[in-house]
Amino acid sequence: MLEGKKIMVVEDEALLALDLAMTMEDLGAAVIGPCYRLGTALELVQQMKVDGAILDVDLNGETVFPLARYLDEQGVPFVFHTGRADPASLLEAFARARICTKPSTPERIATCLAEALADADTDPGSDNENYAPAYAQDGSSGSSQQA
Predict the structure, then answer these.
(1) Prediction pTM value
(2) What is the 3-state secondary structure (H, E, C) of 84-113?
(3) Contact (Cβ atoms closer than 8 angstroms) between residue 57 and residue 43
(4) Range scoring the smallest mean pLDDT among 14-18, 84-88, 108-112, 132-136
(5) Is pLDDT at 73 greater than 80 in this prediction?
(6) How far apart are CA 85 and CA 2, in angstroms?
(7) How does residue 123 score in pLDDT terms, banded at 50, 70 and 90?
(8) What is the torsion angle, in degrees rounded to the nearest 10, for the CA atoms of residue 141, residue 121, residue 8 and residue 95?
(9) Where are the chain's structural domains?
(10) Where's the Response regulatory domain (predicted)?
């Protein structure tokens, strides 16, 4: 599903970050991170090629939005993994983002990310009229729900 992809994991909860990283590796991805701080993630993303990212919105009181804007400008697909932010407002600011609300299983997050990567591979342009930003509210499997 994520074979050969370079995936950045940005999450301030250490156990969750490690669980996400291990799941990505189990699916064949090369993990960049996990990054627990925004500054570290911004430095790494400017030094390394990233194919996709999993972003916790709140990193110890700091929002991940500067990194999300950078990734969006670079055309890098990403998933917001959050328990606090409003999905509708996130999609207003980041129309191509995917959102998995906490709690979600690492496998569910991986599925959301794989869908985002597939959409980006299908049409990397920002004017893809078939692109359906989505979010998942639970850890169930299956397609993401359109917001």
Answers:
(1) 0.83
(2) CCCHHHHHHHCCCCEEEECCCCHHHHHHHH
(3) no
(4) 132-136
(5) yes
(6) 26
(7) low
(8) -80
(9) 1-48, 77-147
(10) 6-117
Q: What span, in angstroms and rounded, lies between the C-alpha atoms of 27 and 40?
A: 24
Token digits for 81?
Answer: 């993994």
Range 24-33 contact pairs with CB under 8 angstroms and sequence separation of 24 or more? 24/54, 24/110, 27/1, 27/2, 27/3, 27/110, 28/1, 28/2, 28/3, 28/4, 29/2, 29/3, 29/4, 29/5, 30/4, 30/5, 30/6, 31/7, 32/6, 32/7, 32/8, 33/8, 33/9
Q: Using DSSP bridges, classify how beta strands 145-146 and 134-136 pair: parallel, antiparallel or unpaired.
A: antiparallel
On the CB side of 106, CA atoms within 13 Å amount to 15
The pair of three-digit structure tokens given for residue 52, joined into one six-digit string: 């996709």
